[in-house]
Design brief:
Helices cover about 25% and strands about 40% of the residues. It is α+β, with helices and mostly antiparallel strands.
Length: about 190
């Protein structure tokens, strides 16, 4: 009898962690003009610095650091959309803008174990706009990453894109990190 009550009390006291889908953009957040937003997505994390230093993942175990105006964005797509769709959308937009791929990977085998978590840590992506933004991609599966370079006379633009399906969200959603770094050197 006591075991049954103990188990029942424990079940009632242990919180169930389920992330819910935001239905609007975070306060004071805005898209970057270089890349159109994926339809039916919400901007839940935003940070823009006039001048900052940013680490960018250039391979499974390599990074580079660049300086310039830095915009960091984190999107959730609405239910029914995947990380593959987000990745393809932004990759196509970068191609249309004239960007070339510096490095890209898809899945744990190509990217490395826990790549989404490792990439976020390496790039020091930390958003405080919302609970969902702070959670980030901790529950990411099937990560896809792309580092692209867009040459310009006034300075190159680097875009790091990380997408994944977010497993523990209810309903399940896809997420996309974008880092847009505008350097002042070609």
């Amino acid at each position: 009898m006591f075991k049954r009550i103990d188990v029942l009390l424990f079940a009632l006291l242990v919180p169930i962690v389920v992330h819910t889908q935001p239905q609007e953009d975070c306060e004071n957040c805005r898209d970057h003009p270089l890349l159109p937003r994926y339809q039916q997505s919400f901007l839940i994390g935003y940070d823009r610095q006039q001048f900052d230093e940013q680490r960018l993942v250039t391979g499974r175990s390599s990074t580079t650091t660049a300086k310039g105006q830095c915009t960091r964005l984190f999107y959730h797509a609405s239910e029914g959309h995947s990380g593959v769709q987000l990745f393809d959308h932004y990759k196509l937009a970068l191609t249309h803008a004239g960007a070339t791929t510096v490095w890209s990977c898809s899945g744990e085998t190509a990217c490395g174990a826990d790549f989404a978590k490792v990439a976020v840590e390496r790039m020091h992506l930390d958003f405080s706009n919302s609970t969902e933004a702070r959670q980030g991609s901790a529950d990411a599966i099937e990560p896809r990453y792309l580092l692209a370079r867009l040459p310009r006379p006034e300075g190159d633009i680097f875009v790091a894109l990380l997408t994944a399906d977010l497993e523990f969200h209810a309903p399940k959603v896809a997420g996309a990190y974008l880092v847009i770094l505008e350097t002042d050197t070609p």
